[in-house]
Amino acid sequence: MHELEWSPITLEAGLRALDLIGVLAFALSGALLAVRKRFDLFGVLVLGCVTAVGGGAIRDTLTGQTPPLFLRDEAYLWAALLGSGLAFVFGARLARFERTLSLFDTAGLALFAASGAIGAINFGLGPLGVVFAGMLSGVGGGVIRDLIANEVPEIMYRSEQLYATAAAAGALTVWLLHPHVTPFQAQFGGALVVALLRWFSRRGWARLPVRRLPEGPGRGQG
């Protein structure tokens, strides 16, 4: 049997498709939050687009790809606008499902953490650089979304649900896989690890320990 060979064009198309799916997912995530906060159409489009391209812009900046990809390839902006528009039109229906926002957020986190790791590998960074770049790429859009929407960024307080840690684990997975598989397969594997860790943490099967300091004398007293 002959091994499946991936041409450069096929690889590029696959990686681009994953990137666009991540943009669409994060756009839906940001725009749905805007709908829930009763933003107008312009506000929904802005928050959705900023959320969608924020992580990618951080990734491209860290890996020296300037201007960011979304400015060089307008398909990313169109995908962000599409996701934001869908959230505005169907937001009332989607909001009925409590996990909808989390689902799109997890998809965006997974795909951007993995694509950030691929970009860092292509730039020649070591394992720590790949993990750091992938993590920031994954959480960047969500942090920007929460700050604009006047929310505390999820990575600052949701210790019981892995977020930045899941993104870092996905980026590390990409780095471990990339010498042995195609970039598309490595990115897909890293994204899958992020999604699984988020799923496990939401069910209480995986979480980080929290250190609580004992109250000193006089604390808590009126």
Structure commentary:
The chain crosses the membrane at residues 13-34, 41-59, 75-95, 107-125, 184-201. Keywords: Cell membrane, Membrane, Transmembrane, Transmembrane helix. It is a multi-pass membrane protein. With 222 residues, the protein is mainly alpha-helical. The chain has one domain (10-202). The protein has helices at 8-36, 41-62, 69-72, 75-94, 100-122, 127-148, 164-177, 183-202. Helix 1 packs across helix 4 (75-94). The longest helix is centred in the N-terminal third of the chain and has 29 residues, at 8-36. The chain is globular and about 45 Å long. It starts with 7 loop residues before the first helix and ends in a 20-residue tail after the last helix. The model has no long low-confidence stretch (mean pLDDT 81).
The portion of residues forming beta strands comes to: under 5%
Q: How many strands?
A: 0
SSE run: HHHHHHHH
Q: Decide which structural class fits the backbone.
A: mainly alpha
> What is the averaged pLDDT score?
81
- Categorize the overall geometry: globular
Q: Give the % helix.
A: 55-70%
Assembly level: single chain
When the domains are counted, the total is 1
Number of helices: 8
End-to-end separation: 77 Å
Family: Belongs to the UPF0126 family.
Pfam families: Gly_transporter
Membrane topology: Multi-pass membrane protein
Subcellular location: Cell membrane
